[in-house]
Amino acid sequence: MAEGERQPPPDSSEETPPATQNFIIPKKEIHTVPDMGKWKRSQAYADYIGFILTLNEGVKGKKLTFDYKVSEAIEKLVALLNTLDRWIDETPPVDQPSRFGNKAYRTWYAKLDQEAENLVATVVPTHLAAAVPEVAVYLKEAVGNSTRIDYGTGHEAAFAAFLCCLCKIGVLRVDDQVAIVFKVFDRYLEVMRKLQKTYRMEPAGSQGVWGLDDFQFLPFIWGSSQLIDHPHLEPRHFVDEKAVSENHKDYMFLQCILFITEMKTGPFAEHSNQLWNISAVPSWSKVNQGLIRMYKAECLEKFPVIQHFKFGSLLPIHPVTSG
């Protein structure tokens, strides 16, 4: 396994912080390109990638319709996301001359900015109330940028960091792994797609046709893991409309493909060239490994994405402590 891919022991996400832990408001630490070295050596990077890989392993070979445990914390997170969804309905787009970046998004975002700590407090037990302001920052970072009215993989990473922090304080546990992806992250994707469509959000830092997707990356990683060792669906099938329409309810990867084909016109090979190339890979395990490498290179090691990442006591900037 490459450096930085060491997975944490299975119970590492169950560490409950000591009552004396000093929670802090996360802030930016990556100000210049040379600072990227600090990020790659940081405890935050190790914990974040460990979290992504642990979930990747947890959903391997499982359908979205698989029967998994749903804890109270998971239910509360879904309720939180349902609230964000309801606010979209309550904040319709406004008439404006420009087609993209509807300014009503700023009204929607201002509500989240104001209510984020109250929302997070519904998920976090009272004895951990001190963690709420720190964790809430990642929720606010996870839904797009209200100045630019855009959304991209950096915002998606903030939502994964939000979930990672909830694991670190013991709100989410090891046996929540499948539900974190299938129940919470899947609901998050639905809300983000609704935001993108309702307010015509711009893709943040998009590489256009050369990027994997305009808005997301993680559901392709976890979605390809779901399909590993599938008896008949191979990577070549995801560009087949029939295979997608028949199987998208079971697989996150195919849901992403369906959304792309609904939002874009023209030949798939032209508007989604990277995905088209991936459809030629012989196995889902190779797709999965390749996407993890690509995620590190194209998202986690890119200054324009990571300059916005925030570091606190739960995802600290200090170098990995060997233990």
UniProtKB/TrEMBL annotation:
GO biological process, one term: mitotic spindle organization
Pfam family, one: PTPA
Region (Disordered): 1-21
Root EC class: isomerase
Family: Belongs to the PTPA-type PPIase family.
Localization in the cell: Cytoplasm; Nucleus
Record keywords: Acetylation, ATP-binding, Cytoplasm, Isomerase, Magnesium, Metal-binding, Nucleotide-binding, Nucleus, Rotamase
SUPFAM superfamilies reported for this sequence: PTPA-like
Top-rank lineage group of the source organism: Eukaryota
UniProt xrefs under InterPro entries: Phstyr_phstse_ac (IPR004327), PTPA_C_lid (IPR043170), PTPA_sf (IPR037218)
Main location group: cytoplasm
Protein's name in the database: Serine/threonine-protein phosphatase 2A activator
GO cellular component: cytoplasm; nucleus; protein phosphatase type 2A complex
Function: PPIases accelerate the folding of proteins. It catalyzes the cis-trans isomerization of proline imidic peptide bonds in oligopeptides. Acts as a regulatory subunit for serine/threonine-protein phosphatase 2A (PP2A). Modulates PP2A activity or substrate specificity, probably by inducing a conformational change in the catalytic subunit, a proposed direct target of the PPIase. Can reactivate inactive phosphatase PP2A-phosphatase methylesterase complexes (PP2A(i)) in presence of ATP and Mg(2+).
Keyword check for Nucleus: yes
Any one GO molecular-function label of the UniProt entry: protein tyrosine phosphatase activator activity
Reactions performed catalytically: [protein]-peptidylproline (omega=180) = [protein]-peptidylproline (omega=0)
Keyword Nucleotide-binding: yes
Biological classification of the source: Eukaryota, Metazoa, Chordata, Craniata, Vertebrata
Encoding gene (name): Ptpa
